[in-house]
Design brief:
This protein has helices at about 1-30, 215-230; strands at about 35-40, 45-55, 60-75, 80-95, 105-115, 115-120, 130, 135-140, 145-150, 155-165, 175-185, 190-195, 195-200, 205-210, 235-245. It is an alpha+beta fold. The strands form 2 sheets. An 8-stranded antiparallel β-barrel has the order 1-2-3-4-5-10-11-15. The chain has a 4-stranded antiparallel β-sheet with strand order 7-8-13-14. Strand 7 and strand 8 form a beta hairpin.
Length: about 250
């Protein structure tokens, strides 16, 4: 009788031990698939991403995006040679929902936002151009030229929604990922600077220094304000992304 009473507690002890061992094995198996990388193409540029698992249904993901675009255009008689440069680094927390396929919600931020537009401005000598509703002529001996720049906040919150997972909780290694969302970057800030000679009557008459004349500078400010108003909708920058990933 004494021997039988000792065996019962030992058999009951095996139950929690078995459960603990099973959980440890499951965790070890999960840890082996906890890192993934991806390549993306999005409205933020071409990107490289990496993710690590936080829990069974969540990841922490980081990435870097880059893109350059150059174009020439004319506005109000001023010729611009412009370059759009996209450079950003992002971090998101990806929360997945097991009954919704690979759907996830990803709050996060652009922790580094160096997106910017820069342009060189010029007006050929003798040609007319308009600033703030006033018509000027570019001086014949010192033609008007200048610069323009558009900058954004250096960091901004964002939220993304999408399908796909850099770390699928299965035996798959390759994946396709799609996302859409918005960056709350605030209104862009446009700056205009002009130098050279601006003339009110013709290319040689009524001429002033565009960089220092109060009338010209007031119209430059008016043009700058107009540009900022036109750009104000971009305080909500749309993000659309598609990518391919590999899980290690």
């Amino acid at each position: 009788m004494h021997i039988l009473t000792e065996k019962k507690p030992r058999s009951f002890l095996m139950i929690p031990i078995s459960i603990a061992l099973s959980a440890m094995m499951a965790n070890l198996s999960f840890a082996q698939t906890s890192f993934g990388v991806g390549l993306t193409a999005s409205t933020l540029g071409a990107g490289v991403q990496a993710a690590v698992s936080v829990s069974k249904y969540s990841n922490i993901r980081g990435g870097f995006n880059a893109f350059n675009y150059t174009d020439n255009f004319t506005k109000d008689g001023v010729n611009y040679s412009g370059t759009l440069k996209l450079r950003s680094a992002q971090v998101t927390y990806d929360q997945y929902f097991p009954r919704l396929g690979g759907f996830h919600v990803s709050p996060g931020a652009l922790i580094y936002d160096d997106n910017a537009g820069n342009a060189a401005a010029s007006v050929p000598a003798g040609q007319s151009f308009t600033l703030g509703g006033t018509t000027y002529y570019s001086g014949s001996t010192n033609a008007v030229n200048g610069t323009g720049a558009i900058t954004f906040s250096k960091a901004a919150p964002m939220v993304l929604f999408g399908f796909g997972n850099l770390l699928p909780r299965s035996n798959r290694h390759f994946g396709v990922n799609f996302e859409a969302g918005v960056v709350f970057q605030g209104s862009p800030n446009a700056k205009l600077n002009l130098t050279g000679t601006s003339c009110l009557i013709n290319a040689t008459t009524g001429c002033v220094n565009a960089a220092t004349d109060p009338g010209v500078q007031s119209n430059v400010q008016s043009e700058q304000n107009k540009l900022n108003n036109d750009l104000s909708p971009f305080k909500y920058y749309p993000v659309i992304s598609i990518g391919f990933s590999y899980k290690f």
